[in-house]
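Dear Dr. L.,

I hope this message finds you well. Following up on our conversation about the binding site, I have prepared a predicted three-dimensional model of the protein together with 2-(butylsulfanyl)adenosine. For your records, I am including the exact sequence and ligand specification that went into the calculation, followed by the structure tokens. Please feel free to forward this to your student if that is useful.
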Amino acid sequence: MNDDIDRLTDEDAAAELARLAAEIARYSEAYYQKDAPEISDADYDALVRRNAAIEARFPHLIRPDSPSITVGSAPAAHFRKVRHARPMLSLDNAFDEADVADFIGRVRRFLNLGDGAAVLLTAEPKIDGLSASIRYEKGVLVQAATRGDGQEGEDVTPNIRTLNDVPERLNGQGWPDVFEVRGEVYMAKADFVAMNARQAESGGKIFANPRNAAAGSLRQLDPAITAARPLRFFAHGWGEASSLPADTQMGVMRAIEAWGLPVSGDLGLCATLDDVIAHYRDIERRRADLRFDIDGVVYKVDRLDWQQRLGQVAKAPRWAIAHKFPAERAQTILNTIDTQVGRTGKITPVARLEPVTVGGVTVTNATLHNADEIERLGVRPGDRVVVQRAGDVIPQIVENLTRGEPRAPWHFPTHCAECGSALAREEGEVDWRCTGGLICPAQRVERLRHFVSRYAMDIEGLGLVHIESLFRDGLIHSPADIFRLHRRREELLEREGWGALSVDKLITAIDARRDVPLDRFLFALGIRHVGQVTARDLARRYVSHQALDAVIALALARRDELIPAIGETDEKFATRAARELAAIIDTPGVGPEVAQALVDFFAEPHNREVMADLLGEVRPRDVVFETRASSVSGKTVVFTGTLETMSRNEAKAQAEALGAKVSGSVSAKTDLVVAGPGAGSKLNKAQGLGVAVIDEAAWQAIVAAAGQEG
Ligand code: IVH
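The resulting structure of the complex is given below.
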């Protein structure tokens, strides 16, 4: 797969390393910070391996932000940060026996061992959870932290204290004054299933897999929530230690166990490659029956003096390796291909399969990702396929075994199965999207939720939960219905949990929003690419002007005018209209992409109807952006780190009210950086560029001086 690396030029390699760094960072953030993996572990590993292979051949091109140097992902903003006394490392992977043999060979060569000398290795399951470092001082738990980026993690002390597996005081005696136990926080498979069932019942978040459930449960700002979650812990090592109770890995692990922390029952010692592989096969065979998910077996050099000598490379020790299990696979028949519509209209093709067991789980559906993937696999209903289930739960089709057989091809739909609107795909994008927008039932609930949300229409008392049930019960179909709810007062009163007081309050709150600033209104429509900032740019541009009408007129009226007059096709018109719109809009931040999205949105008759209906109820108000003279007028400001007295949005609004431009990244054009605790790379960059840096208090002083209270 990596054969092409030999043929890469320097230029190709640099470009590819840049692409891989960005891609891996994105997937890594989705995995570590959002607990929502976007690709399978196997695919992720493949990217990391390709990155490493290219770096091995082009060492001079290794980037400072290379995934081989950075571990995991930077910590999320809301927990206090903890700097690890000793970094929390990651592990290199072995994917087959040959890789393991290489590892042992490397260790022997590095230590310059003679043929006779045995290298004892410990072997234990690689648990699929998240690592934590738990610090004991004089035998008492004083602090616990997540791995974070390996250097700095999140302080989760109160949360870790809620775990039954983790003692508040160490058992016995003779523990070192300072000892950091490191290990894996995980959730047992059965507990995960039961917890998800409870979550489903109470309308809470459903987790994709035990690992994400464990991560989501540990990283709760309210430790009471963590306490209610069935989290467990296995020790697999240690960090800072004022002294050690033994001179082997096994010896220290036994001591940790004696102090009262759980250690895997499958921790064993192996003397030869054959021993190691036998241990691996044994664990692999019992994998499905284990109480928890594992994704491989970890081997560690047993002698600590050797560990010391071996040391580490950028992010992983030389004395340990993770021997990964291959993703589990099975063959089955693909019966049909359906499409699903996501919140933003994204169409995902789904393969309906003849049920098959893959690694102990019955699989009936597999994602096909997008049209390109279907083409790549050449799959059609009736084909025999190979299904793979990796660490995460969405199974994938990896191979089509009957590609050569003559069969009718499957055609990607041209219209949405839910609402019949046309599907559209932008240049350079792989995903098709439903253009039905506000009228597509699959998108409607989510869009309605967006419509009323805080930075959109912000209707007080109309929570996201209400929207869902009012939609389900047919009281709200489209945004305009919200403004007609007062006509259904009696029905509202009959609903559980509603009294006259709350109903009247809601109706008053809704009424108050009939007069809404144009930028909020535009943002609330949920047009692709029209976020808060773009909505504001649009509103600013069209200030005190038939703002909307200008935009819509181009997309609609001109369309009706142009198409018959010059005999253009819809498609050509869309491109032309987008270009015209882009020229007219001519606002920084509003490019052809946004213009195209506006055209697509308003070209859809359903959206026009919904919009006309809504404009019968709501009068968007032209926005006059008043700015006050201040020391930051006309300057470019960047906020970074945690803001303590206000939200990011509020800070941004303040800056704009003072005539400053807010940017997300630091460059030579930045005039001022406002840095809160935890500020990282942006702060460093600002210091490097000599940009002025102030703290939040100093910022508030500037705001106050301009006569604008926070
Ligand atoms: S040892 C210095 N042992 O895997 C080596 N890690 O991919 C540190 N993990 O960050 C790790 N089970 O979160 C070790 N038995 C085990 C493990 C294990 C799971 C995790 C750990 C680590 C990650 C590396």
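In brief: Residues 533 and 589 are 8 Å apart (CA to CA).

With kind regards,
A. P.
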